[in-house]
Design a protein that fits this description.
Homodimer. The chain has 308 residues and is of the alpha/beta class. Helices cover 34% and strands 28% of the residues. The relative contact order is 0.20. The structure holds acetyl coenzyme *A.
Length: 308
């Protein structure tokens, strides 16, 4: 028996912050941001919309999409580096708000790779027969730790949430392979010191190398070849990083998920948000072999190869 995605949901705040808006506040330009990152606009949550609020909305959609009841969930995993507060965790807040009375709950801190860490953890519990359903949410309110005076970082990030119900799927489908990893020696390149601090160039180099290696690794572990891959969902950090992974896999442009232009980098939420849009817009279809790959502060990385 394999574990796979059986329901998906997302939430993005309604307020749109465009590159033109940023031009008014910072020494930057729409042209620079588009060319260097691929971002055109991002969503920003207002003061009354905290991380748990976004997580809740995405989770409700995923539960309904899976056609299950909250009481059937055995574990809630929330991947975030921007919880409402250090504790109680966002996952316990969700547990209460959803009425998931039989669920254990914990948050995962693995930055932008957090959703991958959550999905792989869920897979272990489902395949061992411990839980029937695990709710995994990737959610960030990065706007509250963004230094809005720093043009190197303020242009990159957005807020949002994506959620998945992981449960049993039929043999031959679901999560075929995974890879998780970390390199704490790179922690100095991306961290929170009240606000987010980043050495963009170092993170960029790491990301290009790691995204490609991890994607190839999960394809190999699944016993497949690059030619077998139908679709790539990379963490939406920078279009140039994403393109380098796509080219390494030899996939055409239309076989890569791209939502960065409308949401920016939403960290742990970027992969599930993209998957929801890819499903809604028909880019992901039954039987597709999909590679999802993320990297983030820590440094951390994670990838899965899945048959949809
Ligand atoms: N507008 C205009 N100019 C800018 C801006 C801006 N917003 N930001 C930087 N510049 C300038 C720099 O000052 C520099 O000017 P100089 O040459 O006169 O010194 C020039 O543009 C080039 O700057 P670099 O930082 O060297 O540009 P780079 O090609 O590295 O692109 C970027 C910067 C887009 C941030 C890139 O490094 C990147 O995307 N890095 C990865 C970031 C990332 O993926 N982070 C993931 C975070 S994941 C998580 O866990 C939250």
């Amino acid at each position: 028996m394999t574990a796979g995605f059986i329901g998906m949901g997302k939430y993005v705040p309604s307020h749109v912050l465009t590159n033109a808006d940023l031009e008014k506040r910072l020494d930057t330009s729409d042209e620079w941001i588009r060319t260097m990152t691929g971002i055109e606009e991002r969503r920003i949550a207002d003061d009354s919309t905290d991380t748990s609020h976004m997580a809740y909305n995405a989770a409700v959609e995923a539960i309904n999409n899976a056609g299950i009841k909250p009481e059937e969930i055995g574990l809630i995993l929330v991947a975030t580096v921007t919880p409402d507060r250090p504790f109680p965790s966002v996952s316990t807040m969700l547990q209460q708000q959803l009425g998931a009375t039989n669920a254990a709950a914990m948050d995962i801190s693995a930055a932008c790779a957090g959703f991958m860490y959550g999905v792989v953890t869920a897979k272990q519990f489902v395949e061992s027969g411990t839980y029937d359903y695990v709710l995994v949410v990737g959610v960030e309110k990065l706007s509250k730790i963004t230094n809005w005076e720093d043009r190197n970082t303020a242009i990159l990030f957005g807020d949002g949430a994506g959620a998945a119900i992981i449960g049993k799927v039929s043999e031959g489908r679901g999560i075929l392979s995974f890879e998780l990893g970390a390199d704490g020696s790179g922690g100095k390149h991306l961290y929170q010191d009240e606000k987010l601090v980043m050495n963009g160039r170092e993170v960029f180099k790491f990301a290009v190398r790691q995204m490609g290696e991890s994607a190839e690794s999960v394809i190999r572990k699944a016993g497949l070849m690059k030619e077998d891959v139908d679709f790539l969902i990379p963490h939406q950090a920078n279009i140039r990083i994403m393109e380098s992974s796509r080219e390494r896999l030899g996939l055409p442009v239309e076989k890569m998920s791209k939502t960065i232009h409308k949401y920016g980098n939403t960290s742990a939420a970027s992969i599930p948000i993209s998957l929801v849009d890819d499903l809604a817009e028909g880019r992901v279809k039954d039987d597709d072999v999909i590679v999802m790959v993320g990297f983030g502060g820590g440094l951390t990385w994670g990838a899965i190869c899945i048959k949809w």
